[in-house]
Write a structure and sequence with these properties.
Mean pLDDT: 83
Structural class: mainly alpha
Number of strands: 0
Largest sheet: none
Strand content: under 5%
Distance between the termini: 90 Å
Order of helices and strands: HH
Helix content: over 70%
Radius of gyration: 41 Å
Length: about 130
């Protein structure tokens, strides 16, 4: 499961818990046999508690978000470092292949020049005999 899925589930769960808590508390207070002043005071107190709980949940969510961001940065730095190492290795391999190919070409060029020179000398020698 990806981090985006985890965040969506966590956020939805958090919102659901807070909303359910508020609705449950309001319904409980409305059905409680209390006079208006006491009911309003209870609602005010419960609202304050839920605000505190919500602030705490937001703080936890912020902390979690920072952790996820830092983890993502570490992973991306690791991937970049690994990619650089692989690129350097590939460049080294390519340079070695190119150097080997140049050496083979030079060897073949020397051999062909020698053969051409020997052929020219043989031709001159045959020409002088005739």
């Amino acid at each position: 499961m990806s981090h985006d899925d985890d965040n969506g589930i966590t956020k939805g769960l958090l919102v659901g818990l807070i909303a359910g808590g508020v609705i449950g508390a309001v319904i409980a207070l409305l059905y409680a046999p209390k006079p208006g002043k006491e009911l309003r005071a209870d609602i005010k107190n419960k609202a304050g508690e839920f605000i505190d709980d919500a602030e705490e949940a937001v703080a936890v969510a912020k902390t979690k978000a920072v952790e996820i961001i830092n983890e993502g940065k570490k992973r991306s730095e690791s991937l970049i470092t690994e990619a650089k190492k692989r690129a350097e290795s590939l460049l080294g391999d390519a340079e070695k292949i190119l150097t080997d190919a140049k050496g083979r070409v030079e060897t073949e060029e020397t051999r062909v020049k020698g053969a051409v020179k020997a052929g020219a000398e043989a031709w001159k020698s045959e020409k002088n005999r005739s």
